[in-house]
Each structure stands twice: as C-alpha cells, then as structure tokens.
Write a structure and sequence with these properties.
CATH topology of one domain: Tumour Suppressor Smad4
Bound molecules: zinc ion
CATH architecture of one domain: Sandwich
Distance between the termini: 10 Å
CATH class of one domain: Mainly Beta
Helix content: under 10%
Shape: elongated
Largest sheet: 3 strands, antiparallel
Number of helices: 0
Radius of gyration: 16 Å
Number of strands: 14
Length: 130
C-alpha cells in the first residue's frame, strides 16, 4: 500500500494557531482565531522526475503561504509573507528522486514552523510508501 505522490503545485494546508496580532494598545496578543494556511509546493522539487507530467515533490521542497496571513504584529517571526513557508520535512525512505525522499499524501510537513500540517498528493498514478 502507498499514498499518491505529491507533485508541483500540490499544497501544504492547515491552520496556524501561533500567530500574534496587534492588541488594543498595540502590543502583540495571540490571534483570536487560527489562521488558514495553504502553500503550493514550487521550490526544491525533483525536476528530472515527473509524475503525471509534473516535477515530483521531495524532502525539503517548499512553498509560500498563498494568500499570506495579513495583519500580523510586526514582532511575529512570520509577519513577512516570505517567512510563511510550508516545507516537506521527510518523504519516503524507500522511494527516492534525485537522492531525496519522495513526498506523498500524509508525509511529514510543516507550516510556519508548526506541525502537524497536511499534504495531499495528486500524483495518483504513483503510490509511495513511507
Ligand atoms: Zn502561519
């Protein structure tokens, strides 16, 4: 058994519960509600290995939260949209592309430095095991 491989444009999704927003007096306070996170994976892919015509996603592949969180306090380490990264922490240990583990639905990913987050692979023609 395995799970679909992740390919270019597949997303890391989740909700972020760690962010700080400006409080009534301007000091940082925890965001009153978790913020949605969705990062299409577009960098650090294994460009020489295609699944369904798309470069496959591997360990360390990354993407930026789109659209970015807005309204964060300037002291929040993820206040800059470019800091709002999703990244594959670990792919398969047995299925490699360009020497790195292939990412698949349910593998370990991170959003704004938090786990858990979710990845759903759309490369359904290639099933990858942990
Ligand atoms: Zn976040």
């Amino acid at each position: 058994m395995g799970a679909p491989a992740a390919v270019a444009g597949d997303q890391i999704t989740g909700v972020c519960a760690i962010h700080q927003v400006p409080g009534p007096t301007g000091t940082p306070v925890p965001s009153p509600a978790p913020l949605p996170f969705a990062a299409p994976l577009v960098t650090g892919l294994a460009a020489s290995v295609l699944v369904g015509g798309q470069p496959v996603v591997v360990a360390s592949s990354a993407g930026t939260n789109t659209p970015p969180h807005v309204g964060l306090h300037v002291s929040d380490p993820f206040a800059l949209p470019t800091a709002q990264q999703g990244q594959v922490l670990a792919g398969s240990v047995t299925v490699l592309a360009e020497g790195r583990g292939v990412a698949y639905s349910g593998c370990m990913v991170v959003q704004c430095a938090q786990v858990p987050a979710t990845i759903v692979g759309s490369g359904t023609s290639v099933l990858v095991g942990p």
